[in-house]
Amino acid sequence: MKVARCLIPLFLLHSHNLQPTTHNPKTLIVGAGLAGCTLAWRLHRAGLAFQVIGSSTMPSAAKVAAGIINPVTGRWMTKSWRFDDFAPEAANYYAEIEQMFSIRLYHPLPAVRFCLNADDAKRAKRRCRNPRYDNVLDGFEEVPSENCDFENPHGSFRIEGVAYVDLPLYIQSMRARLLAEGHYEDTVFEHQALKQNESGWFYKGQGYERVIFCEGAALKENPWFNDLPLTPAKGETLLCRSDGLDLHGELHHHGKWLLPYPDGSFRIGATYDESDLTPESTEAAREELCEAFQAMTRRPQALTILDQPAGLRPSTTDARPFLGAHPRKRGLYIFNGLGSKGASLSPTLSRELIEYIHEGKALDPDTDIKRFF
User: Fold this and answer.
1) Of 348, 351, 344, 346, whose CA–CA distance to 336 is shortest?
2) Average pLDDT over residues 252-272
3) Beta bridge partners of 332
4) What is the pTM of this model?
5) CB-CB contact of 272 with 319 (8 Å)
6) I need a labelling partner for 53 at 20 to 30 A (CA). Which of 134, 183, 248, 274 fits?
7) Hey, what domains does the chain have and what are their CATH numbers?
8) Contact status, residue 244 vs residue 301, Cβ threshold 8 Å
């Protein structure tokens, strides 16, 4: 995927002149995935010196993620946690990045979800009557359209506020810019080389006041935070074409989701596997997704598979992210556990973490790792 070139020097993109972090970086960010890159941009916009270390060769969920922002998810069709806070800030954040980098990241699109059984239909009707869902649900449709290509014996409903973010392009563009400006070292971080001293932390000849770990599923290798209950889950999707299927530019959810792209291709997703944490794609996942695709359509569809991305979601036992300070090691922080909703969560939570560190503002108790201590 080609990285769009930014024509504006990074130091001109905010009101503070950011000095090269090689002089005196106060903050070390470990990890250059979605969490690390978003946190780096927030620090940059605040005029705070930082350095990012993380290998682009390491498995990263964001490099293969669909980046879907969806207000109503799960079997129970519940409104996503803090969606009304996260969604507007995410839209504004990605719009800013788009303008600065001259790329397209944020793609709003209509969405339809099909009920799989009578219980689904009852639940959907209740949700559509609930005032809390007024801004995200657009009524229940009992009778399927004659032009619908999908099985629909139980009705469907439309979801508003849906979008997808091109996370691979976001990560690639952000890393390229940070690297060009000297703020990013594309290398594997060695935990054993990080030492505490009287002024903070020391890593390979450079001192830092604080270190923020944004390592995703690699958290298990972290000697300071590996006791947090991260539950990585492997997810695989298929990038496909099907000449006989027209998604009309809409996200379709029918057990699995189908995400359309402007070039006519689409993604089918996603699998969920906590037992296989290898980074490679599998034949079992391919079969599962292909079978789900054929089961949701009214007639057999020829399917051409273009790619099969696989990644590890950094999920948590309570489905809430990890933010905050180490309870015993001063100067160590964590930003992790974004799960499958990182596209919507990361802009707001990165800001909240920086405000917690630099302004003393309290974190949301749902995200603060104090809940485990």
Assistant:
1) 346
2) 97
3) 211
4) 0.91
5) no
6) 274
7) 23-110+160-229+317-373 (3.50.50.60), 233-313 (3.30.9.10)
8) yes
